[in-house]
């Protein structure tokens, strides 16, 4: 590259790069010109305007920014924490996940969002859909998550996971938080109405969620059937399966985002697909939690990928998803899954995300990838699965602004972020041990 750090210019001209699009797959040596937050021109040998910053790419990849459709940023402070020996999913919730959530305060929430957001950005993830939970620090929690993402320059759609786990007061606080944020979110941030696993969501809570969806016009973000326990306890407590509760509540639509979807019989899955709901497959998280394989090949044309509580490295997620599906004898179309994340972001923000074309928002990556074999549209999926990775991400642009340049974040100091995160993690772990 011929520039140290482009900034303060009328336009940016990316010359001599290999521009990649995911679906339909496209690999083309072509120039891109960016003004403001948009791509304004694409073509061979584009001329530079007088004030353009010209960046010579010499064959490096220009790749669309990736999207995590289901993220738990607050988990960024839990990596490597001590944990007891567990017997199944219920103990994982009660002894680890819920204790950890209960130990979060607002400062920890913001630090976790900054640290997790920075990691996502450096991995080439430019947008994420975060489902948050901090039952003892509800009011203002999404604002704190938003501040963390704003600090690093990431695009985010945020929701608070409404639950009855801490009673009616906690439920109402969660509803108020997710609705209030959704109504005021602007710019690179948007809101959704969130819910916890439905076996922790009462009839009254589900009615409140339905009213929140109606009043805000936002979609619902909810984990579904991560483990068979979701259906078992939902039926025991509320007399109906999670899917039927969503159907009866009128909560399945093209704006609904369902995460995990690992343990549904085909008749229930067949009820979901015609609604146009998005299904976020989370293979690395599923394997870590030992909850079994989600039959991703059956997820239909609105299936995408999320990282959940692990790092928002969507190259790693895509590779795990494809390899696990191949091992199950049901290989998925990995490019479609990644492209659907960009379609989901396009829907949430009302922007064209993921297309390296005129009029699209400039969320993109510059990647230093020198493949040992030809790279074409026909074999792009194989390069994604077996070659490309976050280690190749050199620079990251979000909304037309460089957020990472030459592998260096521009708006935060990674060492400071890491130090603050370690301090916050130690405090959270200490509060967990006091319980």
From TrEMBL:
Keywords: Hydrolase. Pfam families: Amidohydro_1. Gene3D superfamilies: Metal-dependent hydrolases (3.20.20.140), Urease, subunit C, domain 1 (2.30.40.10). Residues 61-402 form the Amidohydrolase-related domain. InterPro entries: Amidohydro-rel, Metal-dep_hydrolase_composite, Metal_Hydrolase, MTA/SAH_deaminase. The keyword Metal-binding does not apply. It comes from the Bacteria. One of its GO terms (molecular function) is hydrolase activity, acting on carbon-nitrogen (but not peptide) bonds. SUPFAM superfamilies: Composite domain of metallo-dependent hydrolases, Metallo-dependent hydrolases. This is Cytosine/adenosine deaminase-related metal-dependent hydrolase.
